[in-house]
């Protein structure tokens, strides 16, 4: 069982669950709370991310994993296949199970009358599958990063808010942008330790295409863009100005940027920046949620 847990990479589920929780907080502020629907959303997005992790391991075991000599706790996959902890067939079967679980949750919501959830869920399903699977394989075509931004950012907040309120709004769409930038930054920095293996395996993500040194600039922008976007949300989207409390995680982002900037070619020294990137994502999401709820209860 511990090998299956390792393969599913459960600690990283905050990537999909945090934007769903954030949209649920905004829905609550707007007068809506639907417990069953929220549980089905968590089931759906969590299962999709788990399935995406597993299917990625399955295909990378035939590509970059065998030549990756420098996996880290945050990049290089779960390693359950190359380390012979689980067979490729078992990993694939588990991925199919979680895809089926996500599809079942979406079908229940569709039967309950949430028609548009089918479109949002279908986008998530396609993103999870074709991020890794040939012949499309977004991750090798320079499209994986943009796919991750939408699939784990605005599409999650947009779809969650719709299910909980019956409304598709620009506010809920833009609400996912700060977390979208940061989850893309997580993927982006994870490509630095994997650079040589990805290059050797012809896995042409954007860091491979641009090179590690120029890619530092994109990482810088991905880490910093969420903070002015918080101001945009407060000023133009009628979200409580207390959402600006998420600016408190800016020092974490700046520290991560500094580490990568100076040590982008040294795998061991990049690991703390990988951890800080994840902490920035989680911290910003929690503080945004706290700010939105505090603004509601305080009338601000």
Number of domains: 1
The count of strands amounts to 0
Rg, Cα atoms, Å: 19 Å
The stretches of 5 or more residues where confidence is low (pLDDT under 50) are: none
What's the pLDDT, averaged over the residues?
91
**What is the architecture at the second tier of CATH?**
Orthogonal Bundle
What structural category characterises the helix and strand content? Answer: mainly alpha
The helix content, as a percent range, equals: 55-70%
The CATH class, by name, is Mainly Alpha
Number of helices: 15
Q: Termini separation (Å)?
A: 47 Å
Q: Largest sheet, if any? A: none
β-strand percent reads: under 5%
Form type:
globular
CATH topology: Farnesyl Diphosphate Synthase
Order of helices and strands: HHHHHHHHHHHHHHH
Tell me what you see in this structure:
There is one protein chain. This protein is an all-alpha fold and 300 residues long. The model has no long low-confidence stretch (mean pLDDT 91). α14 runs antiparallel to α15 (267-298). It has 15 helices and no strands. The protein has one domain (2-298): Farnesyl Diphosphate Synthase, CATH 1.10.600. It is 69% helix and 0% strand. It has helices at residues 2-8, 14-29, 35-60, 88-111, 117-130, 144-151, 154-165, 170-175, 177-190, 195-200, 206-210, 212-224, 226-236, 250-263, 267-298.
């Amino acid at each position: 069982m511990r090998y299956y847990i390792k393969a599913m990479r459960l600690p990283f589920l905050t990537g999909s669950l945090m934007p769903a929780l954030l949209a649920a907080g905004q829905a609550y502020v707007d007068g809506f709370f639907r417990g069953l629907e929220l549980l089905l959303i968590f089931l759906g997005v969590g299962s999709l991310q788990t399935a995406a992790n597993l299917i990625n391991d399955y295909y990378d075991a035939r590509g970059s994993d065998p030549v990756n000599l420098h996996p880290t706790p945050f990049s290089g996959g779960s390693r359950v296949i190359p380390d012979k902890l689980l067979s490729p067939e078992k990993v694939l079967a588990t991925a199919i199970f979680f895809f089926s679980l996500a599809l079942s949750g979406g079908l229940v919501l569709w039967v309950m009358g949430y028609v548009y959830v089918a479109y949002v869920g279908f986008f998530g399903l396609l993103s999870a599958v074709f991020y890794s699977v040939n012949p499309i394989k977004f991750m090798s075509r320079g499209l994986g990063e943009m796919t991750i931004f939408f699939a784990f950012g605005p599409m999650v907040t947009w779809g969650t808010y719709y299910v909980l309120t019956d409304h598709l709004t620009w506010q809920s769409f833009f609400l996912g942008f700060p977390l979208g930038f940061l989850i893309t930054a997580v993927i982006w920095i994870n490509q630095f330790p994997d650079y040589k293996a990805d290059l050797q395996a012809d896995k042409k993500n954007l860091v491979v295409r641009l090179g590690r040194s120029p890619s530092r600039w994109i990482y810088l922008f991905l880490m910093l863009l969420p903070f002015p976007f918080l101001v945009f949300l407060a000023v133009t989207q009628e979200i409580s100005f207390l959402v600006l409390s998420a600016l408190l995680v800016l020092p974490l982002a700046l520290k991560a940027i500094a580490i990568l900037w100076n040590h982008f070619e040294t795998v061991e020294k990049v690991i703390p920046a990988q951890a800080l990137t994840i902490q920035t994502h989680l911290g910003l999401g929690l503080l945004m949620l706290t700010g939105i709820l505090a603004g509601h209860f305080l009338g601000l």
